[in-house]
Amino acid sequence: MSYLTIRWRSGLLPGAVAMLASMSSPRTPLTRLLTVLLAGLLAGLVLAVAALPGNLLAGIATKAVLGAFDDLPAALRTPATPQRSYLYANDGKTLLTTFYDVNRTDVPLAEIAPTLRQAIVAAEDRRFYSHGGADLRGMARALVANVTGGGTAQGGSTLTMQYVRNVLKTDPTATAEQRQAATEQTVGRKLQEIRYATELEKTLSKDEILNRYLNIAYFGSGAYGVAAASQRYFGKAPADLTLAESALLAGLVQSPDAYSPIDGDQDAALNRRGYVLDSMVATGAITAAQADAARAEKLTLHPTAQPNGCTATASADAGFFCDYLRRWWLEQPAFGATAQEREQSLRRGGYTVVTSLDPDVQATAVAEARKVYPADDARALPIAAVEPGTGRVLALAVNREYGVGDGQTVNPLVSGGGSIAGYQAGSTFKLFTMLAALENGRTLSTGFDSPSRLTTRFPAEGEASCDGRWCPANANPARMDGYRMMWDGFGRSVNTYFVWLEEQVGPAKVVEMAQRLGITFRAPADADLAAHDADDWGAFTLGVSATTPLDLANAYATVAAEGTYCAPTPVVSVTAPDGTTVPVGQPACKQVLTPDVARAATDAARCPVGQQSAYGQCNGSTAGGVDRIVGRPVAGKTGSSEQNATETFVGFTPQVAVAGIAANPDDPSDAVGAAVQGEVITAVARTIRTAVDGQQVRDFTAPSRELVGNPQRPTPRPSPSAPQPDEGFPSDLLRWLQNRRG
């Protein structure tokens, strides 16, 4: 057993250190004298140990206090230091926001200015490249200086020891008590620090230790690591720092809060910068002339606040999209076993997330929504855009502002969730009836002489009852009544045609079709009807179930992709800090319709937007202006709910599907009115136009003759030729539905 170990275990050194620690000012002349003598004794002992031959000292240390590298905490062997995660738009360049508990990002040593590396060594550990992790001479010097009051307090810790302390006090895998113990002023903690530092030096190169230190050190003003500090103080990357800037940052680590030129004392920061420059001269890193030139530079700051979370999105009004991504993230097992672990991985995991958001489409959708309603309006126009064939969400926009301030909201108005079940989308649900009918043997030529009012098999009471049966009516008999097939039944939005068609195929099959295409029943009453009474849900085809623009856009995107349903996803890629790709968010698609059924429904959906079907059967529309705005093959459907409480339009091309629903999210009784439907149509159409701008013009594939059937019509009744707005369904329907639901 070594002499040092014997004296330590006998209690001499711990007792002496404890004596020093217990002495407080003001001191009497006697205590000061005793302190100096004791300090000299300890310093002499430390220096004596330091003077031992290197191999002998290493042997003593190993037997006394050191273990193997494998015995070190995992955080020191494989750093798990918290880093912020970045969210970018789909171009990989437009920063949307970042998430962090600790503002830091690792960068390799090659991306850190050499002047900063030299400055840190000169300021904090001049013997860094010569000691083995613990600088005993430096500790002795610091001990004497501190006891005798020789200027600024000195710690005697090497960069390696500081790195150990920083890792242990920020280790995300440790408990709060363990992190607190890493900074306790005890002899045991100091010895452990020395042990860990010495072991690290045996395994890691000096440059690797320096790199790790620079990536974890705290530089004040919330910035951890040089990447965050460079951005926070100077708005630049650490590779671009000047000598003066490097010296200033290096000077901050001794007392970050006091020296921070943003939150602390600028004069103190400049004085400390001067000290670092002098130290760099002393180490030979720079010349005296270079130091003088840097010292003469004025302090020029460019403070950059790093956005944190969805309420601080940096661009594209992407708060609602960001919120959707965060909710999606919390459901991904790849980021942890629980929602809490996944939240922590987002805020501390250092991921780079390239989202699916298209900045141009998002900007257009937001601008168009705000043309309809201002940001502070109680009414809202949420708009969602989805890419067919991938499910990637290109935009989630609304006129409202995302946030917790006055007039703002964090409710997921576009995607649904939380308190948002959605909004009635009216006749847009007729698509699901048409698909179910086509899938079950009907053709596009299926004809019916649609009356103004249709008596169904579904029981009803009150004004919506005809001899005890539900009897819905056409909103505009003059242009809706008469013999209709799927093309003009869909184009003119004929209620009685689609209620009849739903009755023929069975409401349960229509409800199942909607679910197959991604419609989620978030309202408890809707979910109950779908689960237990779907075959009697006759009004389902008229869009009485709550939905969201995102669900609706994705359902229509499935038709645009010729029957391929893709789960909506907000990401293109997620990359871990080590550069590996996390296998999440990739298109998850399956064929839920035969391509021919989807093509047939698309052919009929050309009618509402003022275009012509492949078989020339369109003869009326409810959104004829879409054709002129988009200027390429497009399809879609309008929808109005009871008394025009909401107004909806969803349109699609082979490359994008966009849905918008005007509503009052907080008061369904506040009807937006029929007049706004044209504005909703225009907003969605212009968003489609932006989404396909610059892309190849693609036409829809015509359906087979098998699904077309024999489109022979009797002589039609006279009807207006000009497009008319979709006016929803009769006012007595909602009362019937309310009675039906209980």
Automatic annotation (TrEMBL):
Residues 384-679 form the Penicillin-binding protein transpeptidase domain. It holds the Pfam family Transgly. It catalyses: [GlcNAc-(1->4)-Mur2Ac(oyl-L-Ala-gamma-D-Glu-L-Lys-D-Ala-D-Ala)](n)-di-trans,octa-cis-undecaprenyl diphosphate + beta-D-GlcNAc-(1->4)-Mur2Ac(oyl-L-Ala-gamma-D-Glu-L-Lys-D-Ala-D-Ala)-di-trans,octa-cis-undecaprenyl diphosphate = [GlcNAc-(1->4)-Mur2Ac(oyl-L-Ala-gamma-D-Glu-L-Lys-D-Ala-D-Ala)](n+1)-di-trans,octa-cis-undecaprenyl diphosphate + di-trans,octa-cis-undecaprenyl diphosphate + H(+); Preferential cleavage: (Ac)2-L-Lys-D-Ala-|-D-Ala. Also transpeptidation of peptidyl-alanyl moieties that are N-acyl substituents of D-alanine. SUPFAM superfamilies: beta-lactamase/transpeptidase-like, Lysozyme-like. Residues 703-731 are annotated as: Disordered. The keyword Hydrolase applies. Residues 95-280 form the Glycosyl transferase family domain. Residues 713-723 have a biased composition (Pro residues). Keywords: Carboxypeptidase, Glycosyltransferase, Hydrolase, Multifunctional enzyme, Protease, Transferase. PANTHER family: BINDING PROTEIN TRANSPEPTIDASE, PUTATIVE-RELATED, PEPTIDOGLYCAN GLYCOSYLTRANSFERASE. This is Transglycosylase domain-containing protein. It comes from Micromonospora antibiotica.
